[in-house]
Amino acid sequence: MFKKIWKYLIDLGILNFISDERYLKQKYKKMFNKELNLENPKNFTEKLQWLKLNYRDNEMSNLVDKYEVKKYISNNYKPCDLKTIPTLGVYNRFKDIDFDKLPNKFVIKCTHDSGSVTVVRDKKNFNYKKEKIYFDLKLKCNFYNRYREWPYKNIKPRILIEKFMEDDKSDALTDYKFFCFNGKPQFMYISKDDSEDPRTDFFDMNFNHLDLHLKDPNADVMPSKPKHFEKMKKLSEKLSSDFPFVRIDFYVINNEIYFGEFTFYHLGGFFKFHPSKWDKIFGDMLKLKKFGDNDE
Q: Which end of the chain is least crowded, N or C, by CB within 10 Å?
């Protein structure tokens, strides 16, 4: 409970008196038990921190806004190539939502952060009071404060209601997350984040399985190559072309590709590879020279 309260306080800005660089150095030291090298970063987790401090593209704020990004996708892609999850409504305040007009199943999330999501599978069991307290608090938070990811800093806090999506072949949606370096997808992992027993498996762009996992273990049964693997590769290359690093997420639902999200700093850069050698391997893929680093 204390950790949850402390996280909320951080999101509210209790540590904003600490500069971004100092905050990231302290957090990195605590996470990895070593100093954050910003002068000559080598590991992927280091380079993500360097990008937070040194790389700016104003478009990134629109792309991490869960409502605004849908406009970007709709304006640049035909529905036959890439769809977005249908929006049922977007609201400035939780109390403005008319739940009587919503279907029995839906998804409610914040537009301005990561992870504030409630999946409603049966509206009759929806705890309105509990969810109102949760989302009212989230609307007061600034996700930038947690990991100093500057694209989130000036996003307008809103609540997004989306259609509950179901795949005829699976009880939980499968996520396909492509790690793109300087406009080229290099790795992808398959996961079912909403399942009761989440598993994650990494692959290269030839769909060779990699001896690698993060916090979740590999699946007991190797995931099969998705039917739209090559198309998702091409889409991720196009979507990532303007950025030094971005993770592009997709869903394949009933044989159609849906856009998931842009993630510019995977888990805020505060996670551990297993085995650890992959931190350097991923880091080698990310070239910083043209973005201001003379040591690459």
A: N
**Domain ranges in the chain?**
2-290
Q: What is the DSSP string of the chain?
A: -HHHHHHHHHHHTTTTTS-HHHHHHHHHHHHHSS----SS--SHHHHHHHHHHH---THHHHHHSTTHHHHHHHHHS-TTT-B-PPEEEEESSGGG--GGGS-SSEEEEESSSSS-EEEES-GGG--HHHHHHHHHHHHH--THHHH--GGGTTPPP-EEEEEPP-BTTBSSPPEEEEEEETTEEEEEEEE-TTSSS--EEEEETT--B-S-BSSSPPPSSPPPPPTTHHHHHHHHHHHTTTSSEEEEEEEEETTEEEEEEEESSGGGG----BSTHHHHHHHHH---GGGT-TT-
Sorting pLDDT into bands at 50, 70 and 90, what band is 294?
Answer: very low
State how beta strands 184-191 and 200-204 pair. Answer: antiparallel
| Per-residue model confidence as pLDDT tens digits over 214-269 | 999 999 999 999 999 999 999 999 999 999 999 999 999 999 999 999 999 999 99
pLDDT tens digits, 12-49:
999 999 999 999 999 999 999 999 999 999 999 999 99
CATH of domain 2-290: 3.30.470
**Rounded Cα gap, residues 171 and 195, in angstroms:** 8
Question: What's the rounded Cα separation, in Å, for the pair 233 and 239?
Answer: 10
**In sequence order, which residues have a C-beta less than 8 Å from that of residue 39 and are 6 or more positions away?**
295
